[in-house]
Amino acid sequence: MSVFRRIIYHSGWFILLGPLIGAATAIGVINYSPAIIGGPDSFLFCFYRTIPALVIITGWIYSLLPAWLTGVACALIPLKLYQKIINRMIFCAIAGGLITTLFNLVRYGFDISILPLIYGEVLIMLIPAIVAGAIMGGVITYLPGLREVKRNNK
């Protein structure tokens, strides 16, 4: 399979499923440890409790770019590392975490002085990115479209 085809394949699946896995993880983090986002009285916790579907949709839209870049990074793993599932999962988890962190730093103009103010937001994005990267790295070879179809053209 060519590198271009692997990039298209991985990008498509990471964009489609990666943010949904991340949104489900974020809901779990918000639900089971609300102290990360400021406690049960915070706006994000009340927003999540009121409209959880909107949290999933906005989380999916907001994480499209980091998911796409993580898919491209996963597609560019050398084949020796790519063939073992644990290597692929670790690499995709690290790539997801790094790309999401860089995405947040770019979004806030590399102003590190505001990191204590957005600590909860960064954690709510970083934890799901690492989990989604690891899960997608593990299941990407089992999703349809990777293996080329051999047709008997007579």
TrEMBL record:
UniProt keyword Transmembrane helix present: yes
Location(s) in or outside the cell: Cell inner membrane
Principal location: membrane
Residue ranges of the TM segments: 12-33, 53-77, 89-110, 122-144
NCBIfam families, sorted: PRK09823.1
Family per record: Belongs to the CbrB family.
Full protein name: Inner membrane protein CbrB
Annotated source species: Salmonella enterica (Salmonella choleraesuis)
